[in-house]
Design goal:
266 residues; alpha/beta; 38% helix
């Protein structure tokens, strides 16, 4: 058995792009380590925070609950501040992840990789899927850490833009998209001006995680403070949720595409 380390930008990111992969790896007997770069302090602030409870504390507890659901063995926090979206005031904060020294952050991640004798590391694609500054940094830090360690296999988690386009078209035809939320276009400009994710010509692996979709869904629900981001997906019935999230997508930067079925530990 091997060890999978997943680097993610914020609490709850572990679910969307790698939740099924994590659950599958754990179920197959692999060790799974989650490394979260930021504390998620610029997420949605729920109204029901307990007296004296901070958003950071809440999101850490939610992440630990998600980790337990997915079978994650260890959770580590790099402790950077959430940079917010491009152009937000907090972009200028010295503690924001987007302003971190890439080598410093990579050395911290590399230390975890070495300690765990990691076989596989996941980060994000070249623009973090949609251009969020913290996601772009995950790409940079993941690549640099892999260089420092030397022996770990690196995969970039991405979104399949072609699949998204097809699913959105189907959802429109079935009347599944709420009124006023029908303007999402995966081919339109995301936060950095580029389209969302990657095309199937650039993706290396499509990982079948349909069996683990219920665990992925349960883990997403653990992040209750951020349900405005995931509520639409959690409202799907089981069949539609599995259709939308039953595969996860990875780029091997040494191989590229086109996409084929595969597994990170093959």
């Amino acid at each position: 058995m091997g060890t999978l380390v997943c680097l993610h930008a914020h609490p709850d990111d572990e679910c969307i792009s790698t939740g099924g992969t994590i659950a599958r790896a754990a179920a197959e007997g692999h060790r799974v380590v989650l490394v979260v770069a930021t504390n998620g302090d610029h997420g949605e602030v729920p109204s029901e925070l307990a007296p004296g409870e901070s958003l950071v504390e809440r999101r850490r507890r939610e992440t630990l609950a998600s980790a337990e659901t997915l079978g994650i063995h260890r959770v580590e926090w790099l402790g950077y501040e959430d940079s917010g979206m491009t152009g937000w005031a907090q972009n200028a904060n010295s503690g924001a992840f987007m302003n971190a020294d890439v080598d410093d952050a990579a050395k911290r991640l590399a230390s975890i990789l070495s300690e765990e004798h990691a076989d596989v590391l996941t980060c994000y694609d070249w623009h973090g899927g949609y251009g969020h500054p913290d996601h772009v940094m995950v790409h940079k830090v993941g690549h640099r850490a892999a260089q420092l360690v030397g022996r770990v296999k690196l995969y970039e988690a991405t979104m399949n833009r072609d699949r998204m386009r097809a699913l959105i078209s189907m959802a429109r035809e079935m009347g599944m998209i709420p009124e006023g939320e029908d303007d999402f276009d995966p081919d339109g400009p995301a936060d950095d001006g580029n389209p969302m994710g990657s095309t199937e010509q650039d993706i290396t692996l499509g990982v079948d995680v349909q069996k683990y979709a219920p665990l992925k869904r349960k883990a997403m629900g653990c992040h209750a403070s951020q349900l405005s981001d995931s509520g639409f997906f959690l409202a799907m019935d089981e069949e539609r949720f599995t259709m939308a999230f039953g595969h996860e997508w990875f780029i091997d930067p040494l191989v590229g595409g086109p996409v084929s079925d595969g597994w990170l530990f093959s």
